[in-house]
Design goal:
Helices cover about 40% and strands about 15% of the residues. The strands form 2 sheets. The chain has a 7-stranded mixed sheet with strand order 6-2-1-7-8-10-9, sandwiched between helices. Strands 3-5-4 form a 3-stranded antiparallel sheet. The chain is built from 12 helices and 10 strands. The longest helix is centred in the first third of the chain and has 15 residues, at about 15-30. With about 280 residues, it is of the alpha/beta class.
């Protein structure tokens, strides 16, 4: 069947309820993402792109393929890439970066020459990690602040490839203050391209890697001074939120800070964290 005909057939063949429940359970187990009944249409839409890749003619056939033998091991990364949400912006929730620059970095600089370790724990296509790098590097300019290293991770391998390249539509950089944009963003020689690239020195300050927050252990090396895990918990149920935040807290150095999204809360979670600003928490 030609690809166009296959897609039309798939569009007319919704996912069966049994297979939706199987997929929802699999996605929750693998990525922690809640998939209630009102997300069924969204899931169908996103999975249709996998039909050609797997040879399935319908979404139910895709499920037959996914759950047959060892296919799940090969298909899992592609499925997770398809269902994850990758909304992100430079200087998103800017009050966090004001707090970082004006309150936390002076305190970290006062402890001496110890480098700052930061982690963007759900970095998507990279704007959050590059924003952190801009703030830390600008503060450190001229030797005024500490050296730093940044780890940026995501479960989605496709967005990590974009993040590593550091190439973005020019308008995506509009929230970046002009002085920082001049310092850290490269414009193309051909303005018609309407793309910009993060400067090599800033890209080299960040290590990008795949990491699944559902894993029992986060292999990130030494404890972190700063962890940004924003607008991720909203996709998890309460037990999953507790497990994830517990592991993130374990990765913080004593006195380290965890940044969550402004719509997220850890109220009711028994953790060694104290709130010090709006959705900013310090490990006590």
């Amino acid at each position: 069947m030609p690809a166009t005909a296959r897609l039309a057939h798939a569009a007319a063949s919704p996912l069966g309820e049994r297979n939706f429940r199987r997929l929802a359970a699999f996605i929750h187990d693998q990525a922690g993402i809640k998939m209630p009944a009102n997300k069924k249409a969204m899931l169908e839409s996103r999975l249709r792109r996998r039909l050609d890749a797997t040879g399935a003619r319908t979404l139910d056939e895709y499920c037959d393929f996914l759950f047959a033998g060892t296919n799940a091991d090969r298909e899992r990364p592609h499925l997770i890439n398809a269902v994850t949400t990758n909304k992100t912006d430079f200087f998103r929730e800017p009050v966090h970066f004001t707090y970082l620059r004006e309150t936390l970095l002076p305190a970290l600089a006062a402890r001496g020459s110890q480098p700052v370790r930061a982690w963007s724990a759900a970095c998507s296509t990279g704007p959050e990690a590059y924003t952190i790098a801009m703030v830390l590097d600008d503060f450190a300019a001229g030797g005024a602040g500490p050296a730093f290293g940044i780890l940026a991770t995501d479960i989605d391998t496709e967005v990590l490839a974009i993040a590593r390249a550091g190439i973005y539509p020019a308008q995506l950089l509009d929230p970046v203050p002009p002085l920082l944009r001049h310092k850290y963003v490269m414009s193309p020689r051909n303005p018609a391209r309407r793309e910009v690239r993060i400067a090599p020195a800033l890209r080299s300050a960040i290590g990008f890697a795949r990491l699944n927050l559902m894993d029992d252990h986060y292999p990130i090396g030494a404890p972190m001074d700063l962890i940004f895990c924003r607008n991720v918990l909203i996709y998890f149920d309460k037990p999953t939120q507790f497990r994830v935040v517990s592991r993130l807290t374990d990765c913080l150095a004593p006195g380290g800070h965890l940044f969550l999204g402004h719509s997220e809360s850890i109220t009711g979670l028994d953790l060694p964290l104290e709130q010090v600003a709006n959705t900013v928490f310090r490990r006590s």
